[in-house]
Amino acid sequence: MDTLSRLEQTIAARRDASPNTSYVAKLQAAGLPQIAQKLGEEATETVIAALSGSREELTREAADLLFHLLVLLGAKDVTLADVLAELDRREGVSGLDEKAARNPQGIAE
Ligand SMILES: N=c1c2ncn([C@@H]3O[C@H](COP(=O)(O)OP(=O)(O)OP(=O)(O)O)[C@@H](O)[C@H]3O)c2ncn1[C@@H]1O[C@H](COP(=O)(O)O)[C@@H](O)[C@H]1O
User: Closest ligand 1 atom, CA of 24?
Assistant: First the structure.
């Protein structure tokens, strides 16, 4: 099993643990808005690391971001397999072509 799949299982197993002994359980107990806010913070920290941090800092922030994304997805009952299936569905479709099909007149969004 790959790392993200193992992490998804670990998060699912920890969700109902005690918030005193589990960070995942602490986030879950805090509720969806708090989980979403944390994900937003981690996204911002990743952007800052990309723009002004070292390669190592970006790697750490990206790991935090992926971890918190999995916590959020789990809290919403969306699985990693769901997300990967969506990416598979998009495979080979250029983002530019997809956008043009959505907006054939090229109207600025
Ligand atoms: N991969 C992670 C992981 N990555 C990051 N984090 C935590 O995410 C938090 C990141 O928040 P910040 O960087 O903002 O640090 P902070 O200021 O301490 O956080 P806050 O107090 O603001 O919430 C830190 O507490 C990190 O330790 C993680 N916590 C847990 N995991 C995985 O989840 C598993 C279960 O963890 P528990 O639920 O704690 O048992 C672990 O075995 C790991 O595999």
Answer: 38
